[in-house]
Amino acid sequence: MNVDIAIFKIGGHIFGNREYLNSTISQLTSLYERNILKKIIIIAGGGSSANLVRKLDKKFDLSNTISHLMAIYTMDLNGIEISNYFPKLIKTDNLNEIITASKIFTVFLPFAYLSESDELPHSWDVTSDSIALFLAYKLKMENCFLLKNVDGIILKNNKVVKNLTTKDFIRMNESGELANLNLDDEKKYSRPIDPYLIKLIDKYKIPCIILNGSSSSLRILKYFKISEDQKKIYTKIKFS
Length: 240
Prior knowledge:
Blueprint: E1 5-10, H1 12-15, H2 18-33, E2 39-44, H3 47-60, H4 64-85, E3 90-92, H5 95-100, E4 104-108, H6 111-117, H7 128-138, E5 144-148, E6 153-154, E7 160-161, E8 163-165, H8 166-175, H9 197-204, E9 208-212, H10 219-225, E10 235-238
Parallel strand pairs: 1-2, 1-5, 2-4, 3-4, 5-9, 8-10
Antiparallel strand pairs: 6-7, 9-10
């Protein structure tokens, strides 16, 4: 797997806040310009636009495939919005362009690719978290990064769990050890990952790392630049 490339999914609470988004893109730009990462691929979550699709699905009883594709299209729209905020960020819907480039910093628009090459279930259990990991697998990446407005997987005592396996997560979830984050009233699941992601981590053998993009403490940069693990704040979910 490639260790000098990474995919970052930017959650709706990050790109919905200009201050958070500025901090996130600034940190990723620093990683790219300092050649810490030669390829950075950003994908946007569906955010409030995907929640609107949920409401339409509930009201009009759309087919699973239609609602799935509509939700993915909102990721394109949000990705275009991010690239409009930051004109230096190129955008592409061509995965081969990313694969063949020796160096690239881009916003990937997944609708065109996934409408033809989607191997994921068409279900609300599959959100942009799972799509990010699926793309990391297709790009032969070592990790998948989810940038959220929380520090990671949090216990009821507010402690962040740095490292856990998928089995650990399932056990903690079922035993009620995890904090109820209530990240989004439209979501029934906020742990803060989508339900299918755990299955994909085991299937693809690719760990998923949650970082807080809303903090002013530059946690994305610190994850890559600081060698002392105790100074980093994150959650890494590994395959069992």
